[in-house]
Design brief:
With 157 residues, this protein is of the alpha+beta class. The protein contains 5 helices and 7 strands, in the order E-E-E-E-H-H-H-E-H-E-H-E. It is globular and about 40 Å long. The N and C termini lie close together (10 Å). It has one domain: 60s Ribosomal Protein L30, Chain: A. It has a 5-stranded mixed sheet. Strands 2-3 form a two-stranded antiparallel ribbon. The structure holds cytidine-5'-monophosphate (C5P) and magnesium ion.
């Protein structure tokens, strides 16, 4: 078995969609990014690459490379899943936390888990999603950023 963890943060700006796990969440602000800025999938990709000890999202999919610039995060996630199986592993379970002052994500938990399941193709009870505020502290707490953390366990194929 192999364990991995990942983290990401994106600035939040008005007029951009808030996309988490491939799902667009109704929100006044969304992630500032070239791509969709899906902070949750970016953290998850880093957790998967970390479990494989194969570097990180920036080394595999550099935004400086036209091939990856503006890439759909779900496409990058599927590319990463192929690296997981090529290394002889499959996902056992994942556990994710998004830190966001508002909106509340509890009402969107199931759609986010379902969104992740579309790409991960593992049982829903192996996909955990949680949300926290930053208690009004620092950038995330002021509503200027959204953060995500992910942990994964890989099992042999
Ligand atoms: O950050 P705090 O401990 O106050 O969050 C309390 C609960 O509010 C969390 O456990 C979670 O269920 C929910 N929450 C949420 N959406 C957020 C932040 C927190 O649903 N953006
Ligand atoms: Mg990111």
């Amino acid at each position: 078995m192999r364990i991995g963890q990942g983290y990401d943060i994106h600035r939040l700006v008005a007029g951009r969609p808030l996309i988490l796990g491939g799902v667009t969440i109704p929100s006044e602000k969304g992630e500032a990014a070239h791509s969709d800025g899906d902070v949750l999938i970016h953290a998850l990709i880093d957790a998967l690459l970390g479990a494989l000890a194969q570097g990180d999202i920036g080394t595999h999919y550099p935004p400086s490379d036209p091939k990856w610039k503006d890439a759909d995060s779900r496409f990058l996630l599927r590319e990463t899943l192929e690296k997981v199986s090529a290394a002889g592993y499959r996902i056992g379970n994942i556990d994710c936390t998004v830190i966001l002052e508002q909106p509340k994500l509890g009402p969107h938990r199931e759609s986010i888990r379902n969104g992740l399941q579309e790409d991960l193709k593992i049982p829903l009870d192996c996909i955990s999603f949680k949300a926290k505020t930053k208690e009004k502290q620092d950038a995330a707490g002021r509503g200027e950023a959204v953060e995500a953390m992910a942990a994964v366990l890989l099992l042999p194929l």
